[in-house]
């Protein structure tokens, strides 16, 4: 197609592919069908080839959407030899995903990392241009991998150009690619294009074509061959084009029509397969020459081994223009041709089915199992849903729909899962199936947006399922209900009902799931038994990362933030190795929240940043809100008040409409800390008091025990002592029922500050504070301030000095400055602290440099952080000058690494 009017777009793409050999990025070319996306990309490919880039291509095909990693297989086939050089976990995952080796079910993120590593290695020899066309028709697994790669090629000598139809969804929309929107041609350019392809048109026909094409380049080049002097019915442009292509198809001789119909239904585009299936239909051998008329009619491009349609509309127009029975016979002929390819055979058999068919349903179910084994949940969902449609028995139909819904939940397809559950519920379900249907959707946003009555309903359902002899499904339902008690507040009656069900389940008390349920549902009433179980289980961290994640969450609920940090840190490496980034996000968010409460900002900064990024990538908005709120708290503790406000506002926007209480609580905490460090103590008290008001959306039953010390500080400085006493008295009533460390540390601080004496301060300092350095520093600061006000300046200095040194080491700048001011008032000079090496780095850089300081290689760091090892090397090259070092051996010293304590 002539490229009239596309000079600006071509210039932009030319600069992209003809720039320096690193850090190129990519572009998403969008537009309606026929607007010229492929033509523009073809010109970019020509420029790239002349410029010395290697081009790798893949194209989404509508008929291949149900075949996991089909498009990725096409893309990587030319560089498949390099797979053998990948690290073993990546190599196994990629081979399994492409169906080229038997292995355990590959994780999508390991497949993505393998593809990134492979492409990065190939780009070393020659920069790469990756072209992905029609990504709206690409199988979801391949599209996810391309989006994964797109987010991580900012420092690689790789360019990605993808094409996407207007309005179509795709993971690549959120992959950080720049956008190029192709519009229809202006009137004068459209007229020039039409005159160049059809110079002999009469004036009326020319005017009508210009009006109907309305600037669409494909219409301008294809419609002239089908117009007559008589006016045609007014049709939508896409339908008009399809009719044009259909008419050309109908004019072909036999066997060209039959062979072309088979080619349109054959998802792979293989010429040999198409000829074999057409021969089956026609009862005679078919030669490639049978397709020559179709090529002459500009419907296809015929190559030595493949049949390529000139435009996707051509491919879709051909099956639509033949009777159903003719399509059915073509599908059956393809099914017979694919007798050694069971997945493709099953899909063509299903397309040919005229009613229910259990045999074909079983074949599709087997295809779903194979797709899942290759790490293709979306393809498995499609196969199971089609199998359900073909199922003659209602119970089998419901089972298949619910299995498909479960896979949709795992892959983040909320709308698909909801539709499948709704379809399953349209029929009669067994008790087991009803339980499955009820807990399935709780995986999305932990039920935050659901009505609170849903929690009590789940409790009753869990009890019913347990009574029917299904303890595991009952536990899953109960866990879904318990998680809602973290994000929302169902009230004491509902909590008691949940706890009663948990007590009656035939599950061992030490089962991590039951421990976590008790912690979420009864964080005070069961704190003693939960903490006992947690301390026993702490000796076995690292054995099962998912169990460690459960226990980290449980620890947070019962005020044991030190254990929460320990369990969640233990969970992260295993979840990374397994590529379970959704669960890793949750573990990192809990780890970051806990580390900040312990005052270990240096460790929390990169963890919180990674949690926020992964939450966006894995579609977990409230985990993103929680991680962002933690970043706001860190900024407030560092005295970065403008940044704290920006981050707090962002987190609040994510959580406010849905009432995600832990996020809102952390936002209020961050704002309270910032206000205190700026001397706005009334504002600080107002923000922090909301955390203790059950009517406020920031109230979170379990987390409020962590905030007693902050509230006390703000209240004393704001002169709100009586209001503070009321809240402290309420929290004192909880103390006898729970051994929660956070609560007792906070109360000892409040007692000492409200009724200051040497005895109360020293009692608080003698308590078990190992692993709680920020709380120890806070006590020393408050004690030193009180001693100075008592005119005991000499006694105060040791405490103030300890506080300053503690807060300097922890990076809590605002608190360190308070200690300095008090020291100067006590008669001791205290020079300002220079910026720590860590503070010169971005959170992403800090993640990399901390791992490098631990002795990990670039490749090992890349595997941990889901980056190519070359990207890691580029970052380290930039980091060294910031830290004033010239080798990896100097990193630990430059960072002044201190060993954090988890327990």
UniProtKB/TrEMBL annotation:
Gene Ontology MF: a single term: ATP binding
Residue stretches making up the HTH luxR-type domain: 834-899
Gene3D superfamilies registered for this protein in UniProt: Winged helix-like DNA-binding domain superfamily/Winged helix DNA-binding domain
Biological processes annotated in GO: regulation of DNA-templated transcription
The organism's place on the tree of life at top rank: Bacteria
GO cellular component: cytoplasm
Region (Disordered): 821-843
Alphabetical UniProt keywords: ATP-binding, Nucleotide-binding
Transmembrane segments: none
Protein name stated in the entry: LuxR family transcriptional regulator
Organism: Amycolatopsis decaplanina DSM 44594
